[in-house]
Design goal:
By secondary structure, the protein is of the alpha/beta class. It has one domain: TIM Barrel. It is built from 15 helices and 10 strands. The strands form 2 sheets. An 8-stranded parallel barrel has the order 1-2-3-4-5-6-7-8, surrounded by 5 helices. The chain is globular and about 50 Å long. The chain starts with 8 loop residues before the first strand and ends in a 7-residue tail after the last helix.
């Protein structure tokens, strides 16, 4: 059988009625999404609108194509509301609805919620979110003991093959990698960012929401093209390497990539699915999330940067990591920098873009910004 047909994909959904027929030829195992108001790692205003009825119809349509649906409840912090009688009741009601509408399971980073799922809804698959930061065998074994069906590994170990092999040997449940994350490698503010977005609903309602972390990370990437290569994404051409390690599932991130509206988002999901299904990357930058600078605080589009990562020029790049030569000490290593000169091109006003990001960060620091969202 053609290797291009071996991989199992998990794709985001935007609830567009035409999405499922568009992605069905790529035979994804799962799609995933949530109600916009659900506390997840995406602020509500970047997600497509959908009602409970819309979601139920979408799940039914996916099922007709043999595609299962996973409901997202991956907030890293619920403000301890889950331990109150009211909060626990709301979670159980949500889970009951998830089961009733035909979802295959839920993905979460909250261990207490995991226990509720296993105790009260054993028929639901339990997916462990990347935000649970499973990056070693001990953590993997812990979540398997809570009943994990699938563990979505921390993307920070995507190129740590020794660690990936050890995790695979430690558990029997399925393992998944997020393959198109454009976030900073070993990001020092990742945990804070996750908690901040988990509470975005409250700050949006109070009109003070701003994604400080995204401005910080974008500024670092704009100033160093090698950061685009250091990000822990996986080339479509390299999926076989991970299958040989025993990785079962490849998840494509990007629920928030709205572009010019839901239809453009559907185009992007289809294109990403095609690239990973066919194992031909082309311009990797077009597949990544978290790579484009944010809009200015005043709502203006960022200075346009055209980042291109030529997949064809990256044959052999992964060998350095497979040989366990990466120490994560980038200040003393120029490996990614050398490959970036070969495979990465950035066109546009990088200095102007960096200046805007730095100015917006200073505005946030001095407290002279209040969100109009």
């Amino acid at each position: 059988m053609d290797k291009s047909h071996d991989s199992k994909l998990m794709l985001p959904t935007n609830w567009d009625p035409i999405l499922v027929p568009r992605i069905a030829p790529f035979a994804p195992e799962y799609i995933y999404g949530s109600l916009p108001a659900e506390a997840t790692l995406r602020p509500a205003f970047v997600l497509s609108e959908a009602s409970e009825d819309d979601i139920a119809l979408h799940i039914a349509e996916a099922a007709r194509h043999g595609i299962r649906f996973i409901y997202v409840m991956n907030a890293t912090c619920l403000g301890n509301k889950e331990y109150s009688e009211e909060g626990r009741g709301e979670l159980l009601q949500r889970l009951e609805w998830v089961a009733e509408v035909g979802a295959a399971g839920v993905v979460t980073a909250n261990p207490f919620l995991m226990e509720l799922v296993r105790r009260h809804f054993p028929s639901l698959e339990l997916h462990i979110s990347v935000l649970a930061s499973v990056d070693d065998p001990r953590k993997a074994a812990f979540f398997e003991s809570l009943g994990a069906s699938v563990i979505h590994l921390d993307p920070q170990v995507n190129r740590d093959f020794r660690r990936l092999g050890a995790i695979r040997k430690s558990v029997r449940c399925r393992l998944s990698l997020v393959v198109n994350e454009g976030c900073l490698l070993s990001c020092p503010i990742r945990q804070y960012h996750s908690n901040m977005i988990s509470h975005s609903g409250e700050s949006i309602a109070g009109r003070y929401y701003v994604d400080y972390c995204y401005y910080q990370c974008s500024l670092k990437k704009v100033g160093d093209a090698a950061e685009y290569l250091r990000s822990p994404w996986v080339r479509p051409e390299d999926l076989g390497v991970y299958e040989d390690l025993g990785i079962d599932l490849f998840k494509i991130a990007g629920r928030e990539k709205m572009g010019e509206g839901p239809s453009s988002h559907t185009d992007w999901i289809e294109a990403a699915a095609r690239a990973y299904r066919s194992r031909r990357g082309g311009d990797i930058a077009q597949l990544l999330v978290g790579i484009q600078p944010p809009m200015s605080l005043m709502g203006d589009p960022p200075k346009t940067l055209q980042v291109r990562i030529d997949s064809r020029r990256l044959d052999g790049f992964l060998g350095f990591f497979r040989d366990d030569r990466c120490s994560l000490d980038c200040a003393r290593c120029d490996y990614c920098e050398r490959w970036a000169r070969r495979a990465v091109s950035v066109r546009g006003r990088t200095e102007a873009c960096a200046g805007e990001l730095a100015a917006d960060l200073e505005t946030i620091r001095v407290g002279s910004y209040r969100s109009g969202r």
